[in-house]
Amino acid sequence: MEGASFGAGRAGGAVDPVDFLKQPQTILRATAWIFSIVVFGSIVNECYVNTDSQNPELLCIFNENESACSYGIAVGIIAFFGCIFFFVVDLYFQQISSVKDRKRAVLLDLGFSGFLSFLWFVAFCFLANQWQQTTMSKGVLQGADAARAAITFSFFSIIVWVALAVKALQRYRLGTDMSLFATDQFATDPNAAYPGYPTGSGIESTETYQSPPFTETLDTNPKGYQAPAY
Length: 230
Known about the structure:
By secondary structure, the chain is mainly α. Helices cover 55% and strands 2% of the residues.
């Protein structure tokens, strides 16, 4: 955005809801939010099964490894609330008048997006590895679709969060246009005079130079005086 400060317009400007929802960053954030719901929702609802009909205890479907299910749920919840938080930050970002605060918000977004990308990568590798080692049984087959969905959307989440990190990096590189935060005492026209110094009326006089009021010519030979003859 030309003349923008870290990807946003003039501080205090009105936010158009339609334009805000059409922004790529907002779409990516909403997509990441939905993916997080799919992952931890699938694990919580259908990835705890009875592997043995004689044992009523519910075990994690991923190779009966409780750490795999707990990790997937934890990352999904972190991503869920992180998306909500940064969605609110994006909504009120244009209302932030301080350049330093905008910079901190963008850096926080960049760091969080990169961190979530790493967490989702670990989640995908962890869940996929444990699923390959899982022994298929009747109980496991009942939750197999949910397990595959958790693994698949963990992989998709990596892509989305990497894209969010790239967008945050682009916003950071945009830098700051200090003219957006100039006070009213500074003139917007570069050719205008600085208001701190008084200036004239600004109208140049068109009158030509006039002679002094004493317009009588002086007589070179005063009366009663004659030049001597030599």
